[in-house]
Automatic annotation (TrEMBL), chain A:
Name the record gives this protein: Putative cobalt transporter subunit CbtA
Pfam family, one: CbtA
InterPro entries in the cross-refs: CbtA_put
Highest rank taxon of the organism: Bacteria
Keywords, ordered alphabetically: Membrane, Transmembrane, Transmembrane helix
Membrane-crossing residue ranges in chain numbering: 73-96, 108-127, 147-167, 174-198, 244-265
Residues of the signal peptide: none
Automatic annotation (TrEMBL), chain B:
InterPro entries in alphabetical order: CbtB_put
Name of protein: Putative cobalt transporter subunit CbtB
Pfam families given in the database record: CbtB
Organism of origin: Actinophytocola oryzae
Top-level taxon of the source organism: Bacteria
Alphabetically ordered keywords of this record: Membrane, Transmembrane, Transmembrane helix
Parts of the chain that traverse the membrane: 20-37
Amino acid sequence: METKLILRGALTGALGGLLAFVFARIFAEPRIQAAIDYESGRDAAQAALDEAAGRPAAAEGMEIFSRGIQANLGIGVGMVAFGLAMGALFAVVYTVSLGRVGRVRARVLALLIAGAGLLTMYLVPFAKYPANPPAVGHEETIGARSGLYLVMVAGSILFLLGALWLGRKLAPRLGVWNATLVAAAGFAVLTAILMAVLPPLGHLSANVNEYGVQATETPLPLKDPDGTIVFPGFPADTLFEFRFYSVIAQVILWGTIGLVFGPLAERVLGGAREGTARVTADA
Amino acid sequence: MASIPADSSTPVVLPVSKAALLLGLTVLVALLIYYFVGIDQGATSLFGDDSHVHEFVHDARHFLGFPCH
């Protein structure tokens, strides 16, 4: 039974990843390419400035995989694998939750857990450290940024578990509705505190040394020594569209898990229930 | 024994203690995949100073919200 559920979870996750990939291929890839083009143009402008100032030009990074591979096969494999992993985690949570979370239908439970996954693994971390297209993000800070992002992921998972515990504890006294509201408020407050405590990416010391105090790592306009802008800052529309599509892709992924897994689980559980019923009838 | 309403609840409690190994392994594998898609060869690297994994899933990493260079 557990094996069946986990297998179905991993498969629906992979399906969700596949659908999200199709969406990404159509909507996100043009924005990713626009961001890469911006980066190339900016690097060329920077090289020209360096040359004029007599500085050695920065070495160009070597290309390991072509853009064609990255934009088709690479993103496809990455998103399907991510979906599979999320589907497997989802199925583990689902299996453990079965029968331990009160009177919830199998389908509804699937939707609730998928929603929790979307919230904790993506939306809450996104609220503090949103997805960035290529060209946004400095190489020197990748370690700090990865750490901070994972702190947001771990924090939101922890807070949701805490909220769940609190809600269940309060339910007998306040009723399910009010207990849920109190628990949700607790989750929001703890998340807000964590977000307030963690630094904005622009405040990381490596960034402050290089660029002064900025809120984010989004590239500012490039200026020559006289202060004339020779290359614009990162296009705002591209940044918004990339992030918007990133959210949609995650909704597609988790939505697929929640909607497809529910009926599948119902069938698995229904079979088990009939089996039990038959045994009790025989007895 | 009264039958349980077929689709109004999820009364089937799976013996988690028995399935602990399976559940634990699943979580481990899932976290490994999460790590390779999202983090490896960026902040930390399991295969030394090489960026094949990073470059291959590059677009997915950006798009799924992970920090990238």
